[in-house]
């Protein structure tokens, strides 16, 4: 018998995939009216555990009880019908359809007695859900016209609309703005007050400590510990996750940036966004951070330099010579590479292997003297990437979609490292990456700079900018509000500049 407060009990759940024991006897108990955080490194098994609950994967072993009754959902439909809802790590929406279509897909309200969808009913039902949650979106908007963060909010509203008792949020905030995170937390607190049990997965420590009541930590498919959030510090969580003490969050800086200017950007102004008149220069071996609030033009600046957004005006001077970077292709041939913010949406060939996904942007490098692609050389490149990025995979030929979300990100990062760019543009390079692997990525970025390459990186995490960069440009309302020296600047200084043109 389960105690009544034990809403969900997962007992000794195991699950294997070819070559991987993803879950090994994992147990988890979620009490009604609480937020239970699930933490662990990339590939620890968090998403897999939740997919076993939600009927996407069949567990090999173990038991799951909901309100004391054993359950074993065979599909997500069955889970939803029985009070379990999930917001997935990867958004999977019908982008050409409307918001309300996406919410009611598969359970459309019908006109009484007829097999016809009642658009009117659907509209009012959606309105009702949105009003209750304080979401300000027209139900008739086409999904593809909305920013990812709003699409994510729609997904959250959809999960709530099933009136579930247990709600799983798998990295829900990876593409939300700060304001939306606050909004989500208000929604979660409302659900908590209704007696729901919330399972919350995130790599953001601050969030975990802010929203959760209890924390369960997993490592390599195994259960490590469950503790009350109030008894945990960030360092303790890291230690439990990684299995060792991480004394430094950032690698030491051990070189000096020279004076040689590699790239000059003059008057960069975007055609379709607020970005205007941004000028600065980038030195050889320099890591320049770009700070600012969401919507301040950080991503647009990188996109305009890389040619993936339309420029209205602006000049690029590479080592004293004007270049144009009209398209990403042209930029790549000029020695640029860009890791985008939405890696999973824009960068992954999901049914292809890890090797193919790794070498695809540097194929020229792998031609042998007969002008054929050399398997040996491609294997070597991929091997380097897997080792350097600590990618958790059974083999190079594994399909990328079988990797955990964080490990997919690492493959894409490795792909661009292998192109050996002179100028590396990074948009939120460590989003969705666990703490241990973040350190490795910082090290790789710093090594590149040490080898004379230049890096520009956008990040919403200020400690990361201060810890990794030499200099930080602060954007505000599409303009460059100022720049600070990363060695001496404070977060307050950056925040003040970020608010300059808001
Ligand atoms: N469909 C699948 N086929 C094969 N292996 C899989 C599949 N899904 C997950 N795995 C493997 O199971 C392990 C756990 O993956 P899971 O996605 O649960 O990790 P996670 O803790 O959610 O990580 P992240 O923080 O990166 O999202 C990984 O080694 C992954 O490669
Ligand atoms: Mg996951």
Which word captures the global form?
globular
Going across the biggest sheet, name each strand in turn: 6-7-8-3-9-10
Instruction: Estimate the mean pLDDT confidence.
Output: 91
Structural class, judged by helices and strands?
A: alpha/beta
Strand content: 15-25%
The CATH level-2 architecture of the largest domain is identified as 3-Layer(aba) Sandwich
Which ligands occur here? adenosine-5'-triphosphate, magnesium ion
CATH superfamily heading of the largest domain: P-loop containing nucleotide triphosphate hydrolases
**Record field, number of beta strands:** 20
What percent of the residues sit in helical stretches (DSSP H or I)?
25-40%
Poorly predicted ranges: none
Descriptive tags:
alpha/beta, single chain, Rossmann fold, 33% helix, 20 strands, 25% strand, 502 residues
């Amino acid at each position: 018998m389960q105690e009544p407060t034990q809403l969900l009990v997962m007992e000794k759940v195991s699950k294997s995939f070819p070559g991987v024991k993803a879950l090994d006897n994992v147990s988890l108990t979620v009490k009604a009216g609480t937020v239970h955080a699930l933490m662990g490194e990339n590939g620890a098994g968090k998403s897999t555990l939740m997919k076993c609950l939600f009927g996407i994967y069949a567990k090999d072993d173990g038991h799951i009880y909901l309100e004391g009754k054993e359950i074993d959902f065979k599909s997500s439909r069955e889970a939803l019908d029985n009070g379990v809802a999930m917001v997935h790590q990867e958004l999977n929406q019908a982008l050409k359809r409307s918001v309300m279509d996406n919410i009611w897909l598969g359970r459309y309200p019908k006109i009484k007695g007829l097999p016809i969808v009642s658009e009117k009913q659907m509209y009012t039902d959606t309105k009702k859900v949105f009003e209750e949650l304080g979401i300000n979106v027209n139900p008739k908007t086409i999904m593809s016209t909305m920013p990812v963060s709003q699409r994510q909010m729609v997904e959250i509203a959809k999960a709530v609309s099933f009136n579930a008792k247990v709600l799983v949020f798998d990295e829900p905030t990876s593409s939300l703005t700060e304001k939306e995170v606050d909004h989500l937390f208000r929604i979660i607190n409302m659900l908590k007050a209704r007696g729901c049990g919330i399972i919350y997965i995130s790599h953001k420590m601050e969030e975990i400590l802010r929203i959760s009541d209890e924390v369960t930590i997993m490592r390599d498919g195994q259960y490590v510990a469950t503790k009350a959030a109030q008894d945990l510090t960030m360092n303790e969580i890291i230690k439990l996750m990684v299995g060792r003490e991480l004394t430094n969050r950032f690698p030491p800086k051990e070189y000096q940036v020279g004076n040689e200017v590699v790239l000059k950007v003059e008057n960069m102004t975007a055609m379709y966004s607020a970005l205007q008149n941004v000028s600065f220069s980038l030195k050889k071996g320099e890591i320049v951070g770009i700070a600012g609030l969401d919507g301040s033009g950080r991503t647009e600046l990188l996109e305009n330099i890389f040619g993936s957004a339309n420029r209205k005006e602006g000049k690029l001077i590479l080592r004293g010579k004007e270049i144009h970077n009209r398209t990403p292709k042209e930029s790549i041939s000029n020695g640029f590479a860009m890791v985008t913010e939405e890696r999973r949406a824009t960068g992954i060939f999901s049914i292809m292997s890890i090797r193919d996904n790794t070498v695809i942007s540097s194929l020229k490098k792998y031609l042998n003297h007969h002008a054929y692609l050399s398997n040996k050389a491609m294997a070597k490149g991929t091997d380097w990437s897997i080792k350097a990025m600590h990618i958790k995979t059974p083999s190079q030929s594994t399909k990328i979609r079988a990797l955990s979300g964080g490990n997919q990100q690492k493959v894409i990062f490795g792909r661009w490292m292998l192109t050996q760019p002179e100028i590396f543009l990074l948009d939120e390079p460590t989003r969705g990456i666990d703490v241990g692997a973040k350190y490795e990525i910082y090290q790789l970025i710093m090594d590149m700079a040490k080898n004379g390459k230049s890096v520009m990186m956008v990040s919403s995490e200020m400690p990361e900018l201060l810890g990794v960069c030499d200099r930080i440009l602060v954007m505000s309302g599409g303009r460059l509000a100022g720049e600070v020296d990363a060695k001496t600047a404070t977060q307050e200084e950056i925040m003040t500049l970020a608010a300059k043109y808001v």
